Amino acid sequence: MPTLTVGQTLRFSLLNKTRKHLRGEVEIIIDALLSMFAIKHTRNTLVGNEYVRGVSGGERKRVSIAETLATKSTVVCWDNSTRGLDASTALDYAKSLRVMTDVSDRTTITTLYQAGEGIYEYMDKVLVIDEGRMLYQGPASEARKYFVDLGFYAPPRQTTADFLTSVCDPVVRQFREGFEDSCPKTAEELEKVFRASAAYQKVLEDVHDFESHLHATGHVDRRVFQESVQEQKSKRVASRSNYTVSFWKQVLACTRREFWLVWGDRTSLYTKYFTIVSNGLIVSSLFYKTPESTDGAFLRTGVVFFSLIFLGWLQLSELMKAVSGRVVVARHKDYAFYRPSAVALARALTDFPLLIPSTIIFCVILFFMSGLDLEPGKFFIYLLFVYTSTICFTSLYRMFAALSPSIDDAVRFSGVALNILIIYTGYVIAKPILIADKIWFGWIYYINPVSYAFEGALTNEFHARTMECAPNMLVPQGPGIKPANQGCAVPGAVPGQTSVSGDDYVASQLDYSRSNLWRNFGVLVAFCVLYLLVTVIATEKLSFVGSGGGALVFKSGKKQRASKADEEKGGNAGDASMLAAARRTQTQDEVLGELVRSDKIFTWENLTYTVPTADGPKRLLNGINGYAKPGVMVALMGASGAGKTTLLNTLSQRQKVGVVSGDMLVDGKALGNDFQRGTGFVEQMDLHDETATVREALEFSALLRQSRDIPRHEKLEYVDKIIDLLELHEIQDAIIASLGVEQKKRLTIGVELAAKPSLLLFLDEPTSGLDSQSALSIVRFLRKLCAAGQAIICTIHQPSSDLIQEFDKILALNPGGNVFYFGPVGDNGSAVVKYFAERGTDCPPGKNVAEFILETAAKGGQRVNGRKVNWNREWRESAENRELMDEIRRIKTDRAKIVAEDKTVPPVAHEFAAPVWEQTVQLTRRMFIHQWRDPSYMYGRLFVSFIVGVFNGFTFWKLGNTVADLQNRMFSPFLIIMIPATVLNAVLPKFYINRALWESREYPSRIYGWVAFCTAEVLSEIPGSLIAAVVYWVLSYWPTGLPADAPIAGYVFLMTLLFFLFQSSWGQWICAWAPSFTVIANILPFFLIIFSLFNGVVVPYSQLNVFWKYWLYWLNPSTYWVSGVLSVTLTGQTVECAANEGARFNPPSGQTCLEFAGDFVRQAGRGYLMNPNATEDCGYCPFASGAEYLDSLGIEPGYQWRDFGIFLVFCFTNWALVYFFIYTVRVKGWTFGFGALFGWMEKVGEKVKGVFVRNKDSSTEKSEV
């Protein structure tokens, strides 16, 4: 786990594999493991990953070995564990495996790609297989001789591992002279020969001797082993259990690890507290100093309601942690560290202390700023309910995470569940109405934990509270009217009293009772336990972690030419027949003949690259010189962290931060705006639109990157040739996401070749993750490209001797971006060997030259006189470097003359090959296809619209015309405001992924520009948004009984369409601006809170805080949506108060209600007398029409089209902001001042971390002393 330190990782592993009375040895074992693998200096360093800064890649591999050693297993298997490591680091890794095997006396089985001779020599035995058949098994030192004796030829300096894999490849293998016909060739023949060999008989003898030993000793070894394993277990662990410590010990260990994880990721913790404080202040300001009178009754209810759901809403972030941690949990289950349910319980136990400060901070802010009852007992009960409801929300989310296959499903289900819980809490619709009138879904109230928390917290707040009737609620009013003849227009009021009891208010309005306080708390706790129990069962019974090696998936309607992707290579593994190889050679010649030939030369001189860091500027490249000519292939080599990829990105103009200095010229001239379009760049990570097919990816590249002067049919014909060239014909209709490692690498190269790069081809680790023969096949193809006139610069990690021979020159880097060699390879590496031999370091015979270079640079060297060699300085002062500089100057001078003498008119240099219209059309088409093939995105949005629409429509089924129904007619349209919280969580990741692909590969390659990207993103969202809007409107509008008049229904329909368009575009511009997804997750609550609460519904305009009232209310888009929809749906609505609604008062003796209160009603201009002719128990309904109710909300009827227009402007503004931020932030690199802010925050964070680390280091030193 990236946010654990190395020491914590090992300590946790050992705690789960060590019984109690041996726990004192844990620290001793940790020290031994760290020393054994030479990583003692990393004890307090985070493990890290590609996103979290930690130990290096090689050190991380050794941590994995040490963790595996802690399992105390007798057999350990490793699958291609050296992938992505340079040769030196891979050798250290293999050495660690050797040490682990020897020290712990265990069996190690490993598969290795492109293994160097040094790695191979660490192995005792080797197994060679092909097509599932055993071709050889025996001592590793005898394998080469075995196959040579069969007739195979092993070239000089070819590693044994490369030679063994070449035996299985009919295209690459070579035969000794005279053995071309007699040597076995097929896997079946090789297996037959092996089974008849002495080597196979030795295998059978070894097996027979072992079985005989077991039989002769009565299987005593097995019994001793079983007894030893049982002795290592805790007493409470069953003998048949796979685990070493008891379940509760596992829970305690996992709980400790959860705290370590939180502390290791303190930045996220501090960010969360910042979000809580800032949003708490915003919400509190909305309810600031809630009136003590009846004017504050509804507001006080809102304070309690939002207190209960806000922290629960923020806990949605736990979904990502729960789902993303599955891979680690599955691996640790295989290691028998702990049961998956132990993690579920540990996370729950961790919540208890971690949520206490969050709850206290939020509750203190909201409780005191909003003016809730300051009685200490009430505060702590309020705090208890908020805390417990937050625990309950968190448990609910984790339950959905445990039941969901993916994070998208978990977010979708949790978001919809949150909306349902909010609707059926009793705040939106009072409990009596839910139970009595909402027969469809009213029962949800009883299974809603928030409803019990709401009743408990609300009755606690209103208990023993006396509220004076607000003047605007006192009925009737006028000169000479006595309090005995007045009533208060609030539920729970008693005629003749000008104050209202809080207990009576909640009892009358919501049917709540303070006597249920602790029952409600108990039910809330029971729900927490229930959700936790389901989570525990689900984590034990369900597993959504894939096993890898899935089937190839083809697009609909295409024949599946392959059914199962090979786990290592995928489908077509490159075992083509000789006839196929001949056809491929012919196709290669055709394609190579069509490449755009260029005689331009690219030079770089004194190239330096510096980036800003928390500790000041850091130089990553230091004065690098070199050149690339047509027909010359340059290999960039160096240890991990030397700067190979950095140099490649700098040369290809892909750096976005930092300062680049030095000269980069083409034919002695500065780079033009078409430089990046004229180059190809093969990414190391194989970045593609995963839902496209192989052919579609190639056609997309060809159509948008080849010259606009080339006809479309010629571009597509060229794609056909590329497909044949790279052996992609059988998988041309396969979905990219289902391809294997080698297939994706070939596709990545094909995408760049389809563009016909005219100047240069850059490749970053094109052989990473491939076996030796696949890597050699790709490099040999690059050699042919180079021979056809292409200039190639390629970084490479673990080159074999055969592979390095394909390159013309080597540019070798040391850490810090320092060149220590740039020159020819020579025949069998003779030029390289000569250079280092002249400086006192000889390359042993048979040694791989590439490995020799890296090992020499990493370990340093000595001259004959014993003085150490600084290879960086040695190169700078060498004659070879001076020759290089002379050559660069000559190139610049000669090429500049040739260009100056060339009188031909150069073609217009377009930054992009295709016009903007063509870019937009092709990209929009691709995005629509993406949505069609990945329906989970669209289904998720339709699911939300359908579920929320159904619950809205049937919860507010056929509304009447009482005051309660009038309020429900307001809340029914208002519920649409809750949808963005779920929809944005789907829109934001999708846009962010598309933006990342565009920024990292497709824009730097000048495939399409920012206008096409923005337009395609906007257009691709519109159909789905409109469909979702129609679904929601149909399901929510008609069942509720809102006006069926065509103008009104049509207006609401149009506003619903606009709303769904608005929320998609809203999420897009937020993502266009935000620098990272972490920032998006942290700023999103600000937007959603303002959008949902500051629109006059939760707090009417007249009661808004002055600070927000005159600007934020009017800047909030939802203000105009709510105003427009409510003004058309409520204006013509008549109101008839129910018997329990309105104000009740008794007129003076001898007067009717009309005689006594008629003048008041006329002067008020609002409401009516319910029984004007009665002489007692008069009823006053505060509203006679929907227009009067709108007036209480500060909404003026008749401005619906103004509101429509303004909301439409907000939609267009969102789209405009997408273009604006993509251009300014992504293209131009503007930060609007936030870059400095984030940089300052990072510096502060690093200093704080440094203090903790220093304190921890000092305490460790003291304890060691």
UniProtKB/TrEMBL annotation:
GO molecular function, one term: ATP binding
Alphabetically ordered keywords of this record: ATP-binding, Membrane, Nucleotide-binding, Transmembrane, Transmembrane helix, Transport
First-listed, main subcellular location of the protein, grouped into a coarse class: membrane
Protein's membrane topology: Multi-pass membrane protein
Regions that span the bilayer: 297-316, 354-373, 379-398, 410-430, 517-538, 936-957, 969-988, 1008-1034, 1046-1062, 1069-1094, 1204-1222
Cellular compartment(s): Membrane
Native source species: Echria macrotheca
Record-linked Pfam families: ABC2_membrane, ABC_tran, PDR_CDR
Name listed for the protein in its UniProt record: ABC transporter G family member 19
SUPFAM superfamilies given in the database record: P-loop containing nucleoside triphosphate hydrolases
Keyword Transferase: no
Cellular-component GO terms for this entry: membrane
Cited CDD domains: ABCG_PDR_domain2
Domain ABC transporter, chain residue ranges per copy: 602-840
Entry's family note: Belongs to the ABC transporter superfamily. ABCG family. PDR (TC 3.A.1.205) subfamily.
